[in-house]
Amino acid sequence: MDAGLFTANNVWMMLATALVFFMHTGFSFLEIGLTRQKNTINILFKNIFIITGGLLLYYAWGFNLMYPGFEEGSSGIIKFSMDSFGISAPENGMTPEYADGGYTWWTDFLFQGMFAATAATIVSGAVAERIKIGAFMIFTVIYVGLVYPIVGAWKWGGGFLDSWGFYDFAGSTLVHSVGGWAALVAIFLLGSRIGKFDEDGKAKAIPGHSIPMATAGVLILWLGWFGFNGGSVLSADPELTSLVLVTTSLAAAAGGFGAMILSTVLYKNLDLTMFLNGILGGLVGITAGADLMSPNEAVVIGFLAGILIVFAVALVDKMKLDDPVGAVAVHLVCGIWGTLAVGIFGAKAGGEQFMTQLYGVLIVGVFCVVCTFIILGTLKAVMGLRVSKEEEIEGLDIHEHGMDAYPDFIND
Amino acid sequence: MDAGLFTANNVWMMLATALVFFMHTGFSFLEIGLTRQKNTINILFKNIFIITGGLLLYYAWGFNLMYPGFEEGSSGIIKFSMDSFGISAPENGMTPEYADGGYTWWTDFLFQGMFAATAATIVSGAVAERIKIGAFMIFTVIYVGLVYPIVGAWKWGGGFLDSWGFYDFAGSTLVHSVGGWAALVAIFLLGSRIGKFDEDGKAKAIPGHSIPMATAGVLILWLGWFGFNGGSVLSADPELTSLVLVTTSLAAAAGGFGAMILSTVLYKNLDLTMFLNGILGGLVGITAGADLMSPNEAVVIGFLAGILIVFAVALVDKMKLDDPVGAVAVHLVCGIWGTLAVGIFGAKAGGEQFMTQLYGVLIVGVFCVVCTFIILGTLKAVMGLRVSKEEEIEGLDIHEHGMDAYPDFIND
Amino acid sequence: MDAGLFTANNVWMMLATALVFFMHTGFSFLEIGLTRQKNTINILFKNIFIITGGLLLYYAWGFNLMYPGFEEGSSGIIKFSMDSFGISAPENGMTPEYADGGYTWWTDFLFQGMFAATAATIVSGAVAERIKIGAFMIFTVIYVGLVYPIVGAWKWGGGFLDSWGFYDFAGSTLVHSVGGWAALVAIFLLGSRIGKFDEDGKAKAIPGHSIPMATAGVLILWLGWFGFNGGSVLSADPELTSLVLVTTSLAAAAGGFGAMILSTVLYKNLDLTMFLNGILGGLVGITAGADLMSPNEAVVIGFLAGILIVFAVALVDKMKLDDPVGAVAVHLVCGIWGTLAVGIFGAKAGGEQFMTQLYGVLIVGVFCVVCTFIILGTLKAVMGLRVSKEEEIEGLDIHEHGMDAYPDFIND
């Protein structure tokens, strides 16, 4: 392959990697912005743990587990071996022969490693303000280190979902729903925060401490999606990468609009948070088929994702589940929607594809739900998941970290 | 064309697009940082509306209106047709034959779409803290959807300004002045905020609520200008793109220095806000000729832009106009200065060019002023532009959005 | 050279430049986050001064001083001449013949210019909350304008350190230690902030005013390091650049983990600030040899850097030195560690290399310490380094800038 093309491809993939890394800043801002000041340090600590620990785990075995530990079309059982610890350069892995010249093996590892941590980050927001940090750290290690790469292997590693024709371009299911299912189970097991539901069981808003930060978080996440979806082309193919950026941005814009319009109609209020969650819903929704859709289809998928967000947020409340940042609505509901949309719109639309997408959604869902129940159920029995009532009221920052988020912030 | 070169060009243009998108985070930070806490949600809502709505409008018809709806050298009258709704892939638009292999048609759309929203964002800062959000949203739709692409078509779409030899590399006039003129008319029609001028008509500072956010906003805008100007080369041509980044950054630095030195001399104070606005002035000032100037010329243009900022800010106050973020000084005054500087410095300097630049500035100015007067004048008559006195005093956040920006922010 | 390859290389280098520029946002956030609210404007002003002034100085003479003002292998004496003022395009500098087609001459200037300002930024954090801004600005001009390029010329400009075989890939010594030594001397000459040590000489924590900002700063710095180290390959060579990104990110993650684990064991507290400083330590530590190490070696180097951070922070306290942001621990201690690690791990490991690295560290250290003593000693004698007691207690923002950082921030 031509050196210029190989180099240009790899430059794109390295910068996509950088943008996906930057999404962790976006998630951090979003999560602390939408939660209370007294739990800010705790959330940041969790997020820093996820990105550092996630990368180290993916280096130690996740990457090997997800990709080459597998024969093509095999049954999905993972072969462990000591060879799979750590990464080192493959025989001819840095030549353009690897991955059709789309990138080098090193770039591959780092791009995938940045993805891996995302699933745990999604959970982090949902369980905020009440989970024991020790329990969360153990959960993260197992979920990022085992559950995520196993599911990933089924499709992106060439496993059975791939053989069936299941399609998930950049991870509506493999990343977002994997995180979203765990978030759903976790908030079910944890219970709601004190004060979230009144004696009649009616949900009350617990406002966050910085909407500007949450807004910046969403804009940074949108920016990061340029890399998340754009990099999932796995090369810098000009036509495909640029189409993906167009569908991604149009779906984000349409998602925001859908949620904004519906929430204004329903609640007679120009609700910024719903606008923001609509953008995220549009982004998650387009992720499974960002490379298959026309701009028109992307607008429709995004807009419907925004509509779904408004109903999903209300439904979660109705079910007496407490999801401080709307992670279930954004990542699970729109992740499912985006995956199914591949069977409804775009280049692969069709009944058979729709059913395959549905099977994929269900199988991944069952697996993630079962795994999360086992992991968190065990942790609940052994060490407990939830902080004490006193700690929850006084804030996790003081109790777990002996520290305030804004210790010297002063008002005149 | 060589696949490597086409791919490298398109990679650059896609990342320039991402950087221009990121500028909306910069604008948001700058605007909320320099305004009062009680109007923060309102400003963020407007900015999120602009980026989502702007992109959707540009998709629906703006792009078609600005670029191909036009015969070369024609009189500037736009032909509308149903064909111009929405975008779809052109016959051979994804091949290197499009745009001399500088990028694909999809990239072209997205890069230009990110530009389109900028004009409205400039207005957003100037009218902050007192405009009715409904009126602003309608104005934005018309201005981004019609006025901006019509002016753009005159030059970048190959219209009459282009035929005359008018030069505006990345939009000192076509983006920044287009926004700046609207800002000027809008603050004239709106009137000043309560408390901005005392009974003797003397301007009083109304300090913002977060200078750190404003500072971060300026640094993000500078970063975004790497894409705004660098991407305006419309390929990754190594010599030209790298020259543009050098002139852009040197003008920013010199603009900051100019404003900082002059304001320190005049007001005996190391004024951070002036330093920051000087940087923005330098960036706007170099934008029209970033590809024509030597580094030395860029330093001179930027430095003079910084000087202009200090005087322009004082002049706006003197005229009893109230521009909370200095948008008129930065985008209009330095936009004009940068456009004229193309006739004074650099590769195209000369009396004839200067006059062409001047005509371009005036024609665009007259058109934008007239359009803004018509749009906002109509809105003023029909629904009113300004919120009630009570709402202005209590804050737009509570009244229009039922929400605080920092609801849980607590001081010990 | 092939146009596609040249273009792809230059695209990478321009974006690496943008990322290094963005590090100044990261440094600003980190420094204001870890210091008190009353000194925020002052720190931001210094940082804006550094990036604008640093770039202008590097344009005026720094670049010429550091690179071509030198014969190969000469003794390190700099030849000044009027020719060395300002930059202009070299005869054939924009062709692929320059720098083996890795980038253009313009890109070279801008990339190096962004590096130059970093050394002064490091000092800025250490001297925060008590240095006179005038003294700091004069120091910055001399340090960025003379000391940094002279040391840089010894190695990167092809001087005697380079002839000896001293290795410093991206600046553990040439950037970070150059800043770190100056920070050490400066905090020694300045003395500690009022209240940092009690009457028994025991260090007391003076908490900062926004840990979320400090966290965002570290994440932005990590992102910036993609460009800082990745760009130091000086081309987009796929194998080498992607290896560098892998070693850089793994060292960051391992550094964070090392510091987090050790500080938790020693102090029985999940300390977010230590976690963050560990990440920075890992980044600084890998910088000298990011292109020489395997992923395993990068993890070891980063982890040990994280361990060192915990001890170094304690040692600085023990020495009764007051370093509000931990700049000496991060940039000096880990800068030295990273430089020596080149002789212990990776492709160049060996006793002779280790000694060369050690000599380089010592020579640079002696030179920087002497220069800083002369510059700051002179300033201390002539104008004083430290603000008055009253000003320190009331805050530098009001006294030097007549301005609050959050003037309109209100609590309900």
From TrEMBL, chains A, B, C:
The chain crosses the membrane at residues 12-32, 44-61, 109-128, 135-157, 169-190, 211-228, 240-262, 274-292, 298-316, 328-347, 359-379. It is found in: Cell membrane; Membrane. Keywords: Ammonia transport, Membrane, Transmembrane, Transmembrane helix, Transport. PANTHER family: AMMONIUM TRANSPORTER. It is a multi-pass membrane protein. NCBIfam families: amt (TIGR00836). It comes from Zobellia barbeyronii. The keyword Transmembrane applies. Residues 11-406 form the Ammonium transporter AmtB-like domain. Belongs to the ammonia transporter channel (TC 1.A.11.2) family. This is Ammonium transporter. Gene3D superfamilies: Ammonium transporter AmtB like domains (1.10.3430.10).
